[in-house]
């Protein structure tokens, strides 16, 4: 797919000793194409040591800023995150996919919003928070932000600036797992943290929406606690930046081959695959340029519609029951279960 464009890096800003913010220079003729909604992400494609890497990073700048900025935290054992922190500089070019993603803020007025973020999960929340506060002078935003220490807190200075700008409409509760800091909670974001926010610190506020971004365990605990407190699931929006790797038991159960038809960019491809393989892996082996990024069921880049046959997903944290009924699948998580399937990447 031709959704990538080579963009120059306009600035590299050091956020923490282990995190940087990359801001891209968008040519005038691409500004409309790269317009985005608060909470969306972009996929970066770059060759490191001769190997093509694709990584999805949430946009931290608000749409109103006219900037396209992402935050990248260096991950232990990582490849692209290490390269970005240690090698990238202003003037370098990277292939950048057009913005996408469903973890977005939808404006209605007025609103009280709460967000729970951990580590680099703050990146989409930065965009959402500023958009909420800009959208209506009566809007309120509460941020609960977990990190190891103040030194490792991404966008710390920017968050303090938002506090100064919006005063009593923006509140932040820091949570540190390795530092005892005045006015901050010690530990991790868990059930007690959520209850403290809902039942104590902001007990007189009825929130209209909750945005969660972080590791899977945190998302599950916060979601469960919110629902236990009577929060409607429709008000809870989340995005994982990591997902627990699980054994693919489905692959072990499947036998036989499947005839696959792929529709992409108005072209049709056909091949045969083993049911033990996942659809996206098989498609990429055929040198078909299907859209993808994380390959772990965390982003939504590889969504397609199944128009013939059946497939079963190993896991799904993104698609709704209604979308599944309409035939949508995450191809990176899907095994074919019938002798023929047709996968349409265009009908999304």
UniProtKB/TrEMBL annotation:
<dbReference type="Pfam" id="PF00970">
    <property type="entry name" value="FAD_binding_6"/>
</dbReference>
<keyword id="KW-0274">FAD</keyword>
<feature type="domain" description="FAD-binding FR-type">
    <location>
        <begin position="2"/>
        <end position="106"/>
    </location>
</feature>
<dbReference type="Pfam" id="PF00111">
    <property type="entry name" value="Fer2"/>
</dbReference>
<dbReference type="InterPro" id="IPR001433">
    <property type="entry name" value="OxRdtase_FAD/NAD-bd"/>
</dbReference>
<dbReference type="InterPro" id="IPR036010">
    <property type="entry name" value="2Fe-2S_ferredoxin-like_sf"/>
</dbReference>
<keyword id="KW-0560">Oxidoreductase</keyword>
<dbReference type="InterPro" id="IPR017927">
    <property type="entry name" value="FAD-bd_FR_type"/>
</dbReference>
<keyword id="KW-0001">2Fe-2S</keyword>
<keyword id="KW-0479">Metal-binding</keyword>
<keyword id="KW-0285">Flavoprotein</keyword>
<protein>
    <submittedName>
        <fullName>Ferredoxin--NADP reductase</fullName>
    </submittedName>
</protein>
<keyword id="KW-0408">Iron</keyword>
<dbReference type="Pfam" id="PF00175">
    <property type="entry name" value="NAD_binding_1"/>
</dbReference>
<dbReference type="InterPro" id="IPR006058">
    <property type="entry name" value="2Fe2S_fd_BS"/>
</dbReference>
<dbReference type="InterPro" id="IPR001041">
    <property type="entry name" value="2Fe-2S_ferredoxin-type"/>
</dbReference>
<keyword id="KW-0411">Iron-sulfur</keyword>
<dbReference type="InterPro" id="IPR039261">
    <property type="entry name" value="FNR_nucleotide-bd"/>
</dbReference>
<dbReference type="InterPro" id="IPR017938">
    <property type="entry name" value="Riboflavin_synthase-like_b-brl"/>
</dbReference>
<dbReference type="InterPro" id="IPR008333">
    <property type="entry name" value="Cbr1-like_FAD-bd_dom"/>
</dbReference>
<dbReference type="InterPro" id="IPR012675">
    <property type="entry name" value="Beta-grasp_dom_sf"/>
</dbReference>
<dbReference type="InterPro" id="IPR050415">
    <property type="entry name" value="MRET"/>
</dbReference>
<feature type="domain" description="2Fe-2S ferredoxin-type">
    <location>
        <begin position="258"/>
        <end position="348"/>
    </location>
</feature>
């Amino acid at each position: 797919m031709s959704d990538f464009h080579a963009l120059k890096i306009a600035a590299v800003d050091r956020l923490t000793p282990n995190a940087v913010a990359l801001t891209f220079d968008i040519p005038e003729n691409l500004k409309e194409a790269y317009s985005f909604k608060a909470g969306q992400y972009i996929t970066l494609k770059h060759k490191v040591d001769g190997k093509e890497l694709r990584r999805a990073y949430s946009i931290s700048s608000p749409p109103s800023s006219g900037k396209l900025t992402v935050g990248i935290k260096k991950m232990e054992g990582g490849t692209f995150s290490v390269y970005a922190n240690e090698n990238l500089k202003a003037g370098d070019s990277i292939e950048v996919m057009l913005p996408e993603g469903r973890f977005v803020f939808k404006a209605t007025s007025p609103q009280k919003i709460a967000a729970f973020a951990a580590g680099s999960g703050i990146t989409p929340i930065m965009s959402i928070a500023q958009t909420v506060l800009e959208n209506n002078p009566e809007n309120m935003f509460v941020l609960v932000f977990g990190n190891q220490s103040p030194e490792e807190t991404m966008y710390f200075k920017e968050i303090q600036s938002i506090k100064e700008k919006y005063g009593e409409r923006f509140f932040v509760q820091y949570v540190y797992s390795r530092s005892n800091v005045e006015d901050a909670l010690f530990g991790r974001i868990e059930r007690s943290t959520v209850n403290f926010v809902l039942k104590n610190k902001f007990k007189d506020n009825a929130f209209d929406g909750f945005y969660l971004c972080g590791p899977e365990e945190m998302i599950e605990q916060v979601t469960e606690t919110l629902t236990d407190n009577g929060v409607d699931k429709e008000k809870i929006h989340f995005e994982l930046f990591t997902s627990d790797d699980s054994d693919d038991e489905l692959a072990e159960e499947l036998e036989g081959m499947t005839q696959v038809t792929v529709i992409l960019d108005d072209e049709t491809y056909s091949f045969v695959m083993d049911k033990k393989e996942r659809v996206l892996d098989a498609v990429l082996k055929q040198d078909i340029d299907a859209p993808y990024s994380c390959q772990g069921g965390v982003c939504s880049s590889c969504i397609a519609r199944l128009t013939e046959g059946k497939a079963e997903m190993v896991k799904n944290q993104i698609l709704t029951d209604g979308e599944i009924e309409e035939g949508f699948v995450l191809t990176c998580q899907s095994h074919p279960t019938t002798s023929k399937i047709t996968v349409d990447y265009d009908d999304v």
